[in-house]
Amino acid sequence: MAPEPTSTVAAVMRAAGAPMTVESITVQGPAAGEVLVEMVAAGVCGSDLHVRDGQYPVALPGVGGHEGAGIVREVGPGVTELVPGDHVVQLFVSPCGECRQCRRGRRTFCAGGRLDGGTMADGGHRLFDADGQPLGSHLGLAGFSALTVCPVRSLVRIDSDVPLEVAALVSCGVSTGVGAVVNVAGVGPGDDVVVVGLGGVGAAAVMGAVVAGAARIIVVDVNPDKEALASQLGATHFVDARTEPVVEAISTMTDGLGADAVVLAPNQVRPEHFGMAVESLGVAGVVVQVGGAHGQDAIPVAPAKLMGGQKSIVGTTFGGLDPARDVGRWLDLYQAGRLPIERLITRRYAHGDINEAFADLEAGRNLRGVVIYQ
Ligand code: COD
Ligand code: ZN
Ligand code: ZN
User: Fold this and answer.
1) I need a labelling partner for 259 at 20 to 30 A (CA). Which of 46, 82, 132, 159 fits?
2) Which amino acids bring their CB within 6 angstroms of ligand 1?
3) What is the per-residue DSSP string for 207-227?
4) Tell me: the pLDDT tens digits for 184-215?
5) Distance between Cα 294 and ligand 2 center (Å)
6) Which one of the ligands is nearest to 100 CA?
7) pLDDT higher than 60, residue 1
8) Which ligand 1 atom minimizes the distance to the CA of 45?
9) Which residues are known to be catalytic?
10) How far is CA 282 from CA 244, 260, 311, 312, 313, in A?
């Protein structure tokens, strides 16, 4: 017999580009291989704006939220990895652990590891509105619902000493930004690093560069308010891309040698960013594309520019995350006081004020706004 549905509250996307409505809904489940999670904190990430505005395919009506942490309340049949009371973070990938990519430590690229159709792995829904209509679960997570059902494979248990608002950010922004620098660019002591776009993800990249021992950390943004934030996080230089010639500024700041890594994390990566980034690299430097580049079909960089200085361009969506290794690694650094994740939290919002958190993110007022559930 199917379990009784549970009532809860979720921020529901009903139309692309429109504010979400905070509604009473019901949750059904967990089914086999799934877990019922009571959300405690959910970060509002730059990607959530793209989702709300319809730039990423998302099932409507549906519930977004891919950067959260909470407490396990119930486990479905066959789940042995977690028990009620465990503290968990959500991951927007659901790795099987067995396919070729998983076996080779590339779990982010698990075949079938991305639930992007709004349904769970069995094709069904777990969230329903007050009229009984099914609601899509974004990436199988729906972290903007106070109670949600997630695949056990998308959850990582964490130490219950870690504040869940901090853990929530490791779920996406911290893993993406720190991982882009440490795992993907392979930044090491003495390297010079440029981070373009100081949102939550770019800020995490700056922290990753600090932890990796970078010498110069140069932040490029179009919002001059980000200069002070950059310096508080450990950046050594700031370039205002609206008023300064970026390539020349970076060249001067790196004694004419160029950077070892350029991380592209503006909310929209545009064609000219690639040219600027490659021009800003030194010998054997690497450009890491983190931000999405909607509607673009080519990178306008002359191949000779790559060949001559052994430069490379690489993309990443989740900072080369290996969940089993990295979630704990970033939280260990936090607990040791070496990765001050709490500094990314600009403001906390009640669940009912979630649209304000989106508006503040869009206006550039937040590194991270975090929804705190009661
Ligand atoms: N040059 C420099 N900085 C810029 C420019 C520009 N041309 N345009 C905007 N910026 C700055 C903004 O002022 C802001 O400071 C920053 O870029 C963007 O920050 P946020 O807070 O809006 O966004 P984040 O940090 O939360 O997210 C940024 C992403 C790049 C990750 C996101 O927008 C994105 O593109 N996601 C798609 C990729 C993806 O899915 N990644 C995995 C899940 S997040
Ligand atoms: Zn994200
Ligand atoms: Zn797999």
Assistant:
1) 46
2) 45-47, 172-173, 176, 196-202, 220-223, 226, 241, 265-267, 290-292, 317-318, 361, 364
3) HHHHHHT-S-EEEEES-TTHH
4) 999 999 999 999 999 999 999 999 999 999 99
5) 16
6) 3
7) no
8) 26
9) 45, 47, 50, 66, 172
10) 20, 6, 8, 11, 13
